[in-house]
Each structure stands twice: as C-alpha cells, then as structure tokens.
C-alpha cells in the first residue's frame, strides 16, 4: 500500500499548481492567493515550508523549476499577464544548508522571502496560463502560453545575473500552419463542466471573487485587442478554454514543443527553428470527416483548428493539460493530454525519417515540409480513459515515462501504466479527502485497486 501524507492549509485559497524540483526534494506551490511557497522534505519525510512570499498582483497559474545547473530558479506565470523569474539568494541558501547539515533542528530561519525577483516578462496580452523551462541542453530558455493564443520563447542573455531575457520566438498557435492530423480511435464526448477557473464552479474553500476578478480583467483586455473579434468564435469565455504546453525531453530532435490553446481541442507539435518554426503534427481527438482518415494510424490533412469548423463542432472541447514523456531510449514518444470532457488520452508519436529530418533541420525546414511520407511525423491514440467523470486539470509522467498520473475535479489522482503487451490500464488512484475517522493525523483515503 502507498504511504501518503497530507499537508494542511497549504495556501489561503485554491492551489493552482505544484511542481517538484529536479531532485524531488523541494516542492513549489502557487495559489489564487497570489503567493508562492517552497516546501522542503526533511529526514522524516515531512514537508516543511521553506519560503513564502507574495509573487504577483493576481492569481498565480503555473510554476516551473529551471535545471539545477543554472542555480535555484523558478519561473511563475500569472493572471496579471506577467511571467516572473525568481532566484534563491545564494547566501541564504548556503546558510540553511549548513544549518541542516549541523543538525540544528531547533534553529529556524524566519519565513520571509529569500527569493529575489530577477526579471519580469510582460509581453502577453492575456493571462499567462503556462510556463516551462526548456530542457537544459538547449540553454536557459523558457516557453509561455497565454490567452492571447501566443506561444512565446524567451532566452536569458545575461547569466548569471538573470536580469535580461530576450523574446526569441512569438507564434500564434492558431494561425501557424497545421501539420498532419492522425485519426482517432473513438469519438470524443462533449460535457458541460464547472472548473476552478469558471465563476460558476462550486469549489469548497475557493475564492469566487478573486477568480471573477481575474477573468474579468482578462476579458476586458481581450476586448481591446485588434483581433479580438476574429478570436471571438473560439470560445464564449476565457474560462471555457485551455492553454497548455510541454517540451520534448529528447534533444536529438531539437527544440520541439507540444502546445494547445482555446477550445479547439487539439495539440500542435511545433518545431522551434531560428529561421522558421512550423507544425510537425496536430493531435486531435475529434474525428475528421474525410474517409481516408478513419484509420487510427493514417495521417490525414484536415486542419481541426479551423475556427469555422471547431466552433460549430459538437465534439470539440478544451485541452487543459499536456505532458511529453521522457523517451528513455524508445524509438517513439508518448504524449498525454487531459481535457474538460474528463478524458485522459495517450498518444504514441513516431518521428519521421532520421536522415530526412536532419537534412530538413539543417535547411531550416520542419519534417512536414518534405515531400517524402517517410519524413512526416505520425501519431496514434493508444489509450483513452474517462474514469475521472469530470474535467482533468493535470497530467504528468514519472521520470522514466512509464507511469502517467492525472488529477481531476473528482478529487482523485489516478495512475495509468502499460502492461507487457503495451496495453494501458488503470494502476490505482489516490484520494486527497480524509476519512471520517482517520487512524493517523495525516492519513488519506487510498485505493490501489487496478
């Protein structure tokens, strides 16, 4: 049986994100209360708050740790349309590390912010919903995606000061040319779901006022943009959409990222290139009307992101989370998605021909620009789970890409694992609710039935 613990009163409002550092010994959390907290795991497997500070002027949506080779760095995205870069004070960090080594458990550093704001990235015209550092072998870079549907790539040009970041790429995810679209194994279902970012959601302990204010600010901003009318058909409200991204962990293929936005219900796999970025593949669970795409392994050409079709299709829904699995020597990639329809889907993505890919990258082209079918990336959906029965807010892989976890509005974290025959099955679930008569103060309801 899994041994679990419960951290009480983590924040004063709804927790929007939690992410581990590279070693899994520190945990950063953010919330609608505009604060970031950093927790450290002690020798008793207990999480203790290490730092706590007000980071933004609105709800904090996402966090991302940089690779430790660059230092202790966190990037935070917020509804205030900014991304901030935070660095832990070296002197303070060394003092605490020395304190821990000496075993002075009675000496506690006051809970004041030891994280210094190094830079503020304020190019977004909408609320920033996701941020993620690029794999470290590409340098100190990060990607952001906001409700203006723009994917932005930043690179730090002043290390180690971290004060200067250059916007190296700015892509409209909806407008960028769509890549081949694989067929899908089953038809998606449309569900009307209340989520933490909707004012109609009924979440115990959540601040509806703060959510409403954040949404109103973003909607007012969208109304003032020149192309707001063109985007109006993509969703009735900002809260109905989903904005997410995830980097490919394998450096062999270059800087490749999976990104989704709005209510299109698709994920675009984009090759970031200095000369011309383009879409390698489009993952869509909405079945195409072309008969030639009926096979789940066939690569079609229908563009499911077309607003003329996606806005009227009954099968479209928002993708709220995407996670690219570590490759660990596989000849293919695994990409998982979670949506507002309550489904967790796993895609098997196979890159194009190695020789052709290398030649295209050298020429500044994506694999999709080659005339040869061998150069095209292909994908097939290998799993589709709807056990959450409610919106899925997060999907995440383990370090080897063999176990997928998902968190939904049903209040449970569910695990998925492939069998020896590469058939994906449920591997258990963990409930964060406490039992009525807990046997231990920090016990949680645990259900490990497959």
Distance between the termini: 12 Å
Q: Which descriptor suits the 3D outline? A: globular
Mean pLDDT: 76
Radius of gyration: 22 Å
Q: Estimate the strand proportion.
A: 35-45%
- Give the tally of β-strands: 27
Structural class: mainly beta
Largest sheet: 5 strands, antiparallel
Ranges where pLDDT stays below 50 over 5 or more residues in a row are 103-110, 183-215, 221-235, 287-314, 355-359, 366-371, 435-450
Counting H and I runs of at least 4 residues, what is the number of helices?
5
Portion in helices: 10-25%
Family: Belongs to the WD repeat SEC13 family.
Pfam families: WD40 (PF00400)
GO molecular function, one term: structural molecule activity
Region (Disordered): 283-312, 426-450
Outline the fold blueprint.
Elements: E1 15-20, E2 26-31, E3 35-41, E4 47-54, E5 60-65, E6 73-78, E7 83-88, H1 90-101, E8 115-121, E9 128-133, E10 141-146, E11 150-156, E12 165-172, E13 181-182, H2 208-223, H3 228-231, E14 244-247, E15 256-260, E16 266-271, E17 278-284, E18 299-300, H4 307-310, E19 319-324, E20 333-339, E21 344-350, H5 354-362, E22 378-385, E23 392-397, E24 403-408, E25 412-418, E26 424-431, E27 446-447
């Amino acid at each position: 049986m899994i041994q679990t613990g419960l951290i009480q009163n983590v924040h004063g409002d709804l927790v929007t994100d939690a992410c581990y550092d590279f070693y899994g010994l520190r945990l950063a959390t953010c919330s609608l209360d505009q604060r970031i907290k950093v927790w450290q795991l002690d020798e008793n497997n207990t999480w203790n708050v290490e730092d706590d500070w007000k980071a933004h002027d609105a709800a904090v949506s996402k966090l991302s740790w940089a690779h430790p080779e660059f230092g202790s760095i966190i990037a935070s995205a917020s509804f205030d349309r900014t991304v901030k870069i935070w660095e832990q004070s070296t002197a303070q960090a060394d003092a605490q590390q020395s304190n821990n080594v000496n075993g002075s458990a009675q000496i506690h550093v006051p809970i004041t912010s030891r994280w210094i704001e190094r830079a503020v990235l304020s190019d977004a015209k909408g609320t920033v919903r996701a941020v993620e550092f690029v794999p470290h072998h590409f340098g100190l870079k990060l990607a952001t995606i906001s409700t203006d549907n723009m994917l932005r790539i930043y690179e730090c040009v002043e290390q180690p000061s971290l004060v200067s970041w250059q916007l190296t790429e700015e892509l409209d995810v909806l407008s960028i040319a769509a890549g081949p679209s694989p067929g899908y194994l089953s038809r998606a279902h449309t569900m009307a779901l209340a989520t933490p970012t909707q004012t109609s959601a009924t979440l115990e302990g959540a601040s509806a006022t703060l959510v409403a204010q954040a949404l109103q600010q973003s909607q007012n901003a969208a109304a003032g943009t020149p192309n707001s009318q063109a985007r109006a058909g993509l969703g009735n409200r900002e809260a109905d959409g989903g904005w997410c991204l995830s980097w490919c962990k394998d450096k062999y293929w270059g800087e490749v990222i999976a990104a989704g936005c709005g209510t299109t219900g698709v994920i675009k796999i984009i090759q970031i290139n200095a000369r011309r970025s383009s879409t390698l593949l489009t993952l869509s669970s909405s079945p195409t009307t072309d008969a030639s795409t009926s096979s789940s392994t066939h690569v079609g050409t229908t563009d499911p992101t077309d607003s003329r079709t996606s806005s009227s299709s009954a099968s479209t829904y928002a993708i709220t989370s995407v996670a690219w699995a570590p490759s660990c020597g596989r000849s293919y990639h695994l990409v998982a998605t979670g949506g507002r329809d309550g489904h967790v889907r796993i895609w098997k993505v196979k890159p194009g021909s190695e020789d052709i890919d290398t030649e295209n990258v050298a020429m500044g082209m994506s694999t999709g620009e080659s005339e040869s079918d061998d150069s095209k990336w292909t994908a097939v959906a290998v799993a589709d789970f709807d056990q959450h029965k409610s919106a899925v807010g997060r999907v995440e892989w383990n370090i080897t890409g063999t176990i997928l976890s998902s968190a939904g509005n049903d209040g449970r974290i569910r695990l998925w694992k492939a069998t020896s025959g590469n058939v994906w099955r449920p591997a258990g679930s963990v409930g964060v609710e406490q039992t009525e008569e807990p046997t231990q103060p920090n016990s949680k309801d645990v259900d490990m039935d497959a």
